[in-house]
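Changelog entry

Holo records now carry the ligand SMILES as an explicit input line rather than a separate metadata file. Below, a converted record for pyridoxal-5'-phosphate, shown in the new format.
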Amino acid sequence: MAEIDYSKRSFNYYPTNAIVYATCVDGRWSKPVVTNDFNFSVHCFGGVFHYAPSCFEGLKAYRGADGRVRLFRPDENAKRMASSAQYLDMPYPNMEMFLDLCIMCVQENWDCIPSFESGASLYLRPVLFGINPQLGIKSANDVMFCVMASGVGTYSGAKSLVPGSAVISRNYDRAATYGSGGYKLGANYAQSLHAYNLAHKMGYRELLFLDSATHSHIEEFGSSNFFGIKHGCYVTPNSPSVLPSITNKSLRKLAEEMGLKVERRTIFIDELETFEEVNSCGTAVVITPISRIDDKVTLESGTITREYKYADVCGPISEKLYHRMVNIQKGVEEDPYGWCMFVNDPK
Ligand SMILES: *Cc1c(COP(=O)(O)O)cnc(C)c1O
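Structure line, unchanged by the conversion:
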């Protein structure tokens, strides 16, 4: 097989060997099924097509410097999927089952795991959705849990830590105050796709959402959390409508380790002016430095743009955090917190 140039790959779907799934019908889980048929057969009245009982996860398998393959904090993904499913009132895989199917998926796609040198990884996408035929408005009784994979590069192509610009979303909210923002639901994405398309058309990489009740403080980017650095402090919003990012959680730990103070609190828009470094963070790219945030505010006199500008390169503290994180994920540095779970070579 020809070597794949992962530097030319972005965060996208690239074919792999197999998927793994199990179904829960009448409260009983089937045995996991491994298949190279990537087409599901689901009843057309299955809830997922109508009322969006659907949640998902994202995690990565990394080939380490030592050649061993690691999953990064998959137990956290299992817990979060359980919490999303509980919000949707539908069955979900327990921790053991979640981990088993992730491991099986990695093993079935072993030759699709990028080399250590490539800097790329095998992205796992566990999904859980309602399959029982229904027309009445009810939570799903029966579900399918499937883990699929894609050998991804990074969002921004070959290089990591390439800064991007963001615009504050003034006309669209991602999540209601007492809504589903804290759960990883497909529906949350449906909610933000149009707003994202508009932002991209305007040339912005990222869209920064505000709290929906007051539009006065920062929540998060469309698919990643917000954190800022100032005066030796790591600051990130604390809100029930922000998705609890595992990357953010891990970075907070590493920030403490580096001697930074960590604050989870309300960040009013004006405070953007005072940050030395601003980033988005998530599994896909760990950290994306934000070089500028535009806020298009409509006043009686018309729309004005307030600009918050940061450096055109990744800030020094964020860069340190990034390398510490990636080095733990890839086994370049010791893993003092036991975050990595090894997956055995199936051969
Ligand atoms: C998945 C996701 C994140 C990032 O979470 P990680 O666990 O770090 O990958 C952030 N925001 C939203 C809205 C998400 O869906």
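Spot-checked after migration. The mean pLDDT is 95. Residues 123 and 150 are 5 Å apart (CA to CA).
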